[in-house]
């Protein structure tokens, strides 16, 4: 069975890596460390599909060092300790520290994160964590203090277009087909800056017309194939608060179009109407008609006629 398009096109080198120029472009901080052959522990924070896992794998290949992977969804403290012990026993003095990549590190409990501290501090492993949530809230402070934090951004339009053209020209499957990118606005809009999602959309549209000869991709065809685009939203995560904050700021800034957009995002995603209503109530400026703070009321003598 063939691998998905996004996996077939996963970059192997920094030269093939698209986006995040502020981190891996010429002269950027991560690029300098990688070229020097030495990196310190760090955490990559960014939305899905922007290249966090890919960047970690490229670094391991470039440094030619052992690379261990754990998923916070399926691993526990026992798994962490086993990997650390394996890294300690397989390391030679002349080698760089093995890399331990932990995906979704924000899902690790406090005890699981505690189990990493000693190995990270002594250099038994170089930790690379990946998270879609704000590490300041989800990663314990002792671990944060031992790691640098790098923020990855959603891919820009130019990055996404480059990715599309590379896929059509270089992928072993797609380059055998006749594909014309007549229109791309719908694909870019539905992807939301997520490279993986963009490639999945491309693969879906191409496969749907696999037996129809040349494939001409238009906005209408993409919209027809996808039917509906679920909006990115997380009722328990940071995006939950980011969107309600944008909604309130739009109201206070007298931006009705912006307020309606953010309100529609929340309603479409199934947000609790009571939550929206409460935020609307507290967003209104309060005007006090009593010059004395309410916490001083109990000190005042009762006034009788």
- SSE class: alpha/beta
- Strand residue content: 5-15%
Mean of all residue-level pLDDT scores: 83
Secondary-structure arrangement, i.e. CATH architecture of the largest domain: 3-Layer(aba) Sandwich
Q: What strand order characterises the main sheet?
A: 2-3-4-1-5
The CATH superfamily of the largest domain is identified as P-loop containing nucleotide triphosphate hydrolases
| Radius of gyration over C-alpha positions, nearest whole angstrom | 25 Å
* Straight-line N-to-C gap: 89 Å
Low-confidence stretches: 286-305
- What is the count of structural domains? 3
Largest sheet: 5 strands, parallel
**Class of the largest domain, according to the CATH hierarchy?**
Alpha Beta
Number of separate strands: 7
**What general form does the structure show?**
globular
CATH topology tier name of the largest domain: Rossmann fold
Count up the helices.
15
Binned, the helix content reads 40-55%
């Amino acid at each position: 069975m063939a691998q998905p398009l996004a996996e077939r096109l996963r970059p192997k080198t920094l030269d093939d890596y698209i986006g995040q120029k502020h981190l891996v472009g010429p002269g950027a901080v991560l690029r300098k460390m990688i070229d020097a052959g030495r990196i310190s522990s760090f955490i990559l924070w960014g939305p899905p599909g922007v290249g966090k896992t890919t960047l970690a794998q490229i670094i391991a290949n470039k440094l030619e060092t052992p690379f261990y992977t754990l998923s916070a969804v399926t691993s526990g403290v026992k798994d962490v300790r086993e990997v650390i012990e394996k890294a300690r026993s397989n390391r030679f003095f002349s080698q760089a520290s093995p890399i331990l990549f932990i995906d979704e590190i924000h899902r690790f409990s406090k005890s699981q994160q505690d189990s990493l501290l000693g190995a990270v501090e002594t250099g038994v492993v170089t930790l690379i964590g990946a998270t879609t949530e704000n590490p300041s809230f989800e990663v314990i402070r002792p671990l944060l203090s031992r790691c640098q934090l790098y923020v990855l951004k959603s891919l820009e339009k130019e990055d996404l277009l480059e990715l599309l053209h590379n896929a059509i020209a270089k992928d072993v499957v797609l380059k055998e087909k006749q594909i014309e990118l007549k229109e791309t606005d719908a694909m870019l809009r539905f992807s939301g800056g997520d490279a993986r999602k963009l490639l999945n959309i491309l693969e879906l549209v191409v496969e749907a017309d696999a037996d129809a000869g040349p494939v001409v991709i238009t906005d209408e065809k993409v919209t027809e194939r996808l039917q509906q685009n679920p909006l990115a939203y997380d009722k328990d995560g940071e995006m939950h608060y980011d969107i309600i904050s944008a909604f309130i700021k739009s109201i206070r800034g007298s931006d009705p179009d912006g307020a309606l957009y953010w309100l529609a995002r929340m309603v479409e995603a199934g947000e609790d109407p009571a939550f929206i209503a409460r935020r609307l109530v507290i967003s209104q400026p309060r005007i006090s008609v009593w010059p004395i703070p309410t916490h001083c009321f109990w000190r005042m003598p009762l006034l009788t006629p």
